[in-house]
Write a sequence for this structure.
């Protein structure tokens, strides 16, 4: 078992990989073909009721006297058809079949004195919603056929079809997962999937500061926004690489400085002979418990030109006159280093907590075996404790790297992205996420903002997938089952 | 390095002692650094210094310790700003969204951990990929959706944003449920218990740590969140702001009156005291959750 797993991890030669991808695609097609065959076979095999269910939902259930279920399916179909055909309008933009066409044109009525302009963004949004509604109805449609066909099979075996009461009861037992997952799925669908899809689509339009929905028509522009980042002449192409570089540099340093110092602090607190361990830990947990907008804004003011830190440094003779550390700093490097130092204050406690827990779990039999073999304490530390910590916290390293790439608060609250680069909006400490924020919310350059969001996603997704595929918890996901 | 055994033992003990002393010194120094900004906020909240005209000085000053203490900042906070409204708004949003999110997270985590069904692995993988999209991205889209629909920015929208997508954050809780032995569940099944009954009367009662961990994080979330609330609620609706947004605009808003820092500190203190107390009281559960999350990855 172990060996088989190890062999699978070894990367295959490229042509083998292509072959694998090819066979996967072939498998996909044959699966589609098979399910189509199954669909036909089921239609031929089913009772008359089941056959009619392919056209009128719930008919099969009604013919088996499962009235509640049948009416439910029928009702859903009627509502769906009404929704699609009547194309109800909200803010004079239609849903239903009309919205599917609108999604392609994004509006044709440019508007004049007598006619309002088509609201392209609402058209796009309603189109996405309608596609979602169709997808949900397809699921309802298939479960309607399945339900009727299963009833046929039961009758053929001489059994009784389940009553509505029994169907409901099964939601609390054999189909408990359906009951438990549905609310969460609806929430995720509406508040994560739908907005994300909408945002991705916007990256392919010209929805920017010059195209306001409801006043101007917005059009599909293909990959033009992506090209603007690499070939354009404006701010976007000039600042993209510097911002990306700083984002990655920041994430790298922020992750490793916190990681190493956090582990050192944990080792210090857990050292033999140190008393009041809980008290020390509580001091640092205080930082985690304190809302970041409070601690970060406090830092920003502490470090201000007339703040106590500047005056203390001047009194100690370390500075000749007060300087700006953050947004107004004359040198970008000053601001960047200050942020990294403040980030230590924020981040060390997390790593400390995590490592403390792990330190208590270092397997004692390892130590004992080492002691019997005559190892010194230091040897035990460098050869057992350190590798163990590194091994166990490796996934955390990746998650915190990703967290740092998208760490909005610390930059926004400390510097707001400044110091400014003359002539540009994106400042010296702007990360991709803070830049994307100011582009979309403040500048209304929504399409470019979406492109940057997609890039951010690609970076974090690559990092996660690499670590996740290799992580123990994925490979041994079923170990506990 | 060490030649004879007796001095080795002695020097070892001595070096152990100096090591301990150095460790204490480092720990004390670090604690001072960590407490320095926190104490500064507390001191500023109570700072009551007046200028020549007898007006309260509210700006950041260069001396760390105030020359005079008093409650003037708190009085000003409640009479001149909408702090009480912000506080109640946040309490309202966090009370509802913590109940909703905790329920969603526990349901998803349990199903993913203990129930077997056809699409389980697929749903798990999709959830992981969805979790990779920056929440930030959907937030901006939600902002435009609300704006496009002409929906007034409401606290209700904020509650939905906080809780609706929370089902995706189920990993830590799933890790907890994974540890519960399957034999416990199987024996209950043999006794004829339904899945729903097993969940509510066997699993939930022994899951106090993870319930508290999830509830703690989702309750304190709205008090700590700055960016979602800022985007969803907008700048001008100050009667709808949560504490974070309200206090931020107080010192960095458009109508800049720089003489408000001490008042800001007073507000921060009033927010921090209940949240920090709650956190410290539940410390044990928080640490358990964080450690489990890290090891699970």
């Amino acid at each position: 078992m172990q060996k088989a797993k190890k062999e699978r991890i070894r990367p295959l030669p490229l042509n083998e990989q292509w072959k694998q991808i090819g066979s996967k695609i072939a498998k996909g097609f044959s699966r589609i073909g098979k399910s189509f065959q199954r669909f036909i076979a089921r239609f031929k095999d089913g009772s008359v009721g089941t056959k009619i269910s392919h056209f009128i939902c719930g008919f099969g259930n009604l013919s088996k006297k499962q009235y509640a279920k049948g009416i439910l399916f029928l009702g859903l179909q009627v509502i769906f058809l009404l929704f699609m055909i009547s194309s109800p309008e909200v803010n004079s933009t239609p849903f239903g079949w009309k919205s599917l066409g609108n999604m392609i044109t994004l509006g044709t009525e440019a508007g004049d004195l007598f006619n309002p302009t088509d609201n392209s963004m609402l058209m796009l949004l309603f189109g996405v919603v309608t596609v979602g509604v169709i997808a949900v109805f397809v699921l309802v449609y298939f479960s309607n056929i399945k339900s009727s066909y299963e009833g046929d099979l039961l009758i053929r075996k001489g059994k009784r079809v389940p009553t509505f009461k029994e169907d409901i009861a099964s939601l609390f037992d054999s189909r408990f997962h359906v009951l438990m997952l549905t609310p969460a799925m609806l929430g995720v669908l509406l508040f994560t999937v739908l907005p994300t899809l909408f945002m991705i689509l916007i990256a392919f339009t010209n929805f920017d500061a010059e195209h306001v929905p409801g006043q101007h028509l917005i059009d599909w522009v293909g990959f033009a926004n992506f090209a603007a980042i690499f070939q354009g002449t404006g701010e976007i192409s000039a600042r993209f690489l510097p911002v990306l570089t700083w984002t990655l540099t920041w994430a790298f340093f922020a992750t490793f400085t916190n990681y190493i110092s956090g582990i050192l602090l944990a080792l210090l607190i857990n050292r033999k002979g140190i008393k009041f361990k809980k008290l020390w830990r509580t001091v640092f947990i205080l930082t985690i418990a304190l809302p970041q907008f409070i601690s970060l804004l406090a830092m920003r003011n502490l470090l201000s030109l007339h703040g106590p830190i500047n005056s203390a440094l001047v009194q100690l003779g370390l500075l000749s006159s007060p300087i700006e550390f953050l947004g107004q700093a004359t040198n970008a490097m000053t601001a960047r280093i200050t942020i990294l130092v403040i980030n230590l204050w924020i981040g060390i406690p997390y790593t400390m907590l995590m490592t403390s827990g792990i330190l208590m779990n270092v397997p004692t039999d390892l130590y004992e075996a080492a002691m019997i073999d005559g190892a010194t304490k230091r040897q035990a530390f460098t050869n057992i404790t350190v590798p163990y910590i590194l091994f166990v916290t490796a996934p955390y390293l990746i998650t915190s790297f990703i967290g740092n790439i998208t760490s909005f608060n610390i930059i926004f609250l400390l510097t707001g992205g400044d110091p400014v680069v003359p002539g540009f909006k994106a400042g010296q400490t702007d990360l991709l996420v803070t830049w994307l924020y100011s582009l979309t919310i403040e500048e209304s350059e929504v399409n470019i903002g979406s492109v940057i969001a997609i890039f951010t996603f690609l970076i974090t997704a690559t990092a996660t997938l690499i670590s996740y595929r290799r992580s123990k918890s994925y490979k041994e996901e079923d170990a506990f089952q | 390095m060490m030649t004879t055994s007796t001095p080795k033992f002695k020097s070892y003990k001595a070096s152990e002692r100096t090591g301990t002393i150095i460790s204490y010194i480092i720990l004390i120094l670090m604690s001072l650094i960590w407490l320095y900004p926190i104490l500064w906020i507390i001191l500023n909240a109570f700072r009551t210094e007046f200028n020549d005209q007898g007006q309260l000085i509210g700006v950041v000053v260069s001396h760390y310790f105030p020359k005079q203490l008093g409650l003037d900042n708190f009085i000003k906070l409640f009479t001149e700003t909408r702090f009480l409204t912000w506080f109640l708004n946040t309490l309202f949003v966090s009370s509802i969204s913590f109940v909703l999110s905790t329920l969603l997270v526990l349901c998803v985590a349990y199903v993913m951990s203990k129930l077997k069904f056809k699409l389980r692995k697929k749903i798990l993988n999709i959830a992981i990929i969805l979790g990779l999209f920056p929440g930030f991205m959907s937030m901006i889209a939600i902002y435009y959706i609300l704006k496009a629909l002409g929906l007034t920015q409401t606290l209700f929208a904020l509650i939905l944003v906080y809780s609706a997508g929370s089902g995706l954050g189920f990993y830590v809780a799933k890790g907890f449920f994974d540890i519960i032995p399957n034999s416990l569940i199987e024996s209950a099944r043999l006794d004829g218990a339904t899945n729903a009954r097993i969940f509510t009367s066997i699993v939930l009662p022994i899951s106090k740590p993870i319930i508290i961990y999830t509830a703690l994080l989702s309750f304190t979330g709205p008090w700590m969140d700055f960016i979602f609330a800022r985007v969803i609620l907008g700048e001008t609706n100050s009667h709808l702001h949560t504490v974070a947004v309200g206090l931020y605009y107080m010192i960095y808003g458009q109508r800049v009156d720089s003489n408000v820092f001490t008042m800001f500190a007073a507000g921060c203190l009033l927010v921090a005291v209940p949240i920090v107390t709650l956190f410290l009281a539940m410390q044990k559960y928080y640490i358990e959750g964080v450690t489990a999350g890290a090891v699970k990855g």
In short: Chain B has two domains: 5-70, 75-296. Chain B touches chain A through 102 residues (CB under 8 Å).
